[in-house]
Amino acid sequence: MIRAKLMVLASCFVLSVIPTSSSYGAEKVGSPAPHLVIKPLRGTEFDLNVQKSKVIIVHFWATWCPPCRKEMSILSEIYQQYRARGIEMIALSVDRPRELDAVREAARDWTFAVAMLSDATTNEFGTPASLPMTYIIDQKGLIRQIFTSDGTELSKSSLGHVLDTLLSKQR
């Protein structure tokens, strides 16, 4: 059991240090959000450019990543609390397509959109260099916060603070 947990944590670390050929990681707070078009497991196509009048949460995760699964419960609570105020959320699984059943099982109780990153028709985010990774995008399409496993930690309080600030600006 301990060995299995260490292997999973090592996998998360390895993913965080593997360089990618995409532009991932170039996104910075204050810069325009990369374009993303994807079909969620349930629902209609999600086009980030169409969502620009809303605050958007874009979360990268995997079923095999324990910190990701922990954050999903926080994100689920936050989405329930803030969706009536105009936020949208999409969780992008970096699992391989053959793991679709595991992704569906993990996401069955979540009410926000979940998609396989491999299903994106447009993905200017690229593949994340580490997991979990969460972007908060404002109503103008600008990145306002990035939560990472090795940087600013995502918590109900920290995410709620960012959302309250952004949503109060639209009044």
Core attributes:
three-stranded antiparallel β-sheet, 171 residues, Glutaredoxin, disordered N terminus, alpha/beta
Q: Write the H/E string, N to C.
A: HEEEHEHEEEEH
Number of distinct beta strands: 8
Oligomer: single chain
The end-to-end distance, rounded to whole angstroms, is 51 Å
- Figure out the total of helices: 4
Low-confidence stretches: 3-25
In the CATH hierarchy, the third-tier topology is known as: Glutaredoxin
Query: By CATH's scheme, which homologous superfamily applies?
Result: Glutaredoxin
Question: What profile does the largest beta sheet have?
Answer: 5 strands, mixed
Radius of gyration: 15 Å
What is the 3D shape?
globular
Strand fraction equals: 15-25%
Strand arrangement, major sheet = 5-4-3-7-8
Descriptive overview:
- The protein has one domain (2-168): Glutaredoxin.
- Residues 3-25 have low confidence and may be disordered.
- Strands 5-4-3-7-8 form a five-stranded mixed sheet. The chain has a three-stranded antiparallel sheet with strand order 2-1-6, with no helix packed on it.
- It has helices spanning 2-17, 66-82, 100-107, 156-168, and strands spanning 36-38, 46-47, 55-61, 87-93, 113-116, 122-123, 133-137, 143-148.
- The longest helix is centred in the middle third of the chain and has 17 residues, at 66-82.
- With 171 residues, it is of the alpha/beta class.
